[in-house]
Amino acid sequence: MGGELTSGAAGVPPAAAPGPGGTPKAVGIVWALLGLNTLGSAGAKTVVPLPRSLIQMATMGALVAAFALALALNPRLRIRASAFLFLLTLLLVPSVIASVQPDVGFGALFRCTRLAVFVGTLWLLSHWWDGGLTFVRYHIRMYFAVLVLVAAGLAVAPGTAMPEYYGGRLVGALWPLTPPQIGQYAAIVIGLAVLLVLGRRTTAGSAAVVVVPSLVLLAMTHTRTATLGLLIGLVLAIGSLVLTSAAARRFFAWAVLCATVAAVAFSSALRAWFLRGQSQENFANLTGRAKVWDALLAEPRSTGEKVFGTGLGDKSFDGLPIDNSWLAVYDEQGLIGVVVVAALLVVIGGVALLRPPSLPRACAIFLISYCAISSYTEVGLGDASAYLLHLALAASLLVAPAPPAPLPVAEIPRRRIPRWARR
To answer: Which of 79, 266, 374, 407 sees the fewest Cβ atoms within 10 Å?
Structure first.
């Protein structure tokens, strides 16, 4: 997507050579390593069985490598003030307080350490946050590479990639990825690529290479949350550009027309895809999620557990996934964690609304709205996850660019005047 990074300058290692906007190329590697860490270690069965311990070593090794490389790129610890990162750091307080309890276990402390290293790496990268689109391109390339891996698994072993125990939905056959994960990555790639086209930061042909296969993979996952997040996020993002972009107005008009025709002509097929063969009762309780939520809220808790939570865990309750970011944060980080996460979304959303219309602002609005919508049926806002990485990208887009340094003015040499001329 967009222009390629420039080659290394003379005497500068290629990885440290500045890219667009003066950002070193290695910053993109750090961003990709953070994305690898958020892929997780639990999911579908793969063609070649991968031990969970091996996957955890790879993901945690990627996080440690990302922090070390970011520290090497920013040895003077130059950072940019950010309310988003401050609130994210504040989230560590209830996480640590709840996780140090003796009955919680070592796993909670391990997850706290992981979150702390994740946040520390973002602080180091904030030095290059300038409101530009460099990190957007990093994001698209990173998750499109994951989608290419998913497509390769589908080609190699279609039976493993679309198993019956997931209802024939697309999963990762080479790396254990669930349908909601694949749907999330595809939706993010599609949304950002479409916005880059509307902002004329890439060509329609280049975007089609990314968008078309991502749409196919999104449809094969049958992920309703990702689809709704993509549609609503794009409506809000493009709506923010309508007053200043003729291309956005044309795209919005055509999209509304096509959506209306599709809704009328293919209403039964769309309804069948949306229900995924479920009964009305099963759909009403969100595939059993509501029962888990009711049981979690009815669980007796001490005052400390209500305020600080029970410590970072695997986002499950009685062995069942919680599948709601707000309830997962309440369970693990308590009411303080819920307040901090809510403040985080309110602050970053408010900043996006106050910024003047621009393509970076539209991308940030898309990411924020997508994460807010997905938080109802997905987890991740309270721990190191792809959702926090999406929000970090949005925060980088909302940073006000630093004023350019004044150009040095060469001192004009004074002409020597002979003594007789002075008289």
So the answer is: 407
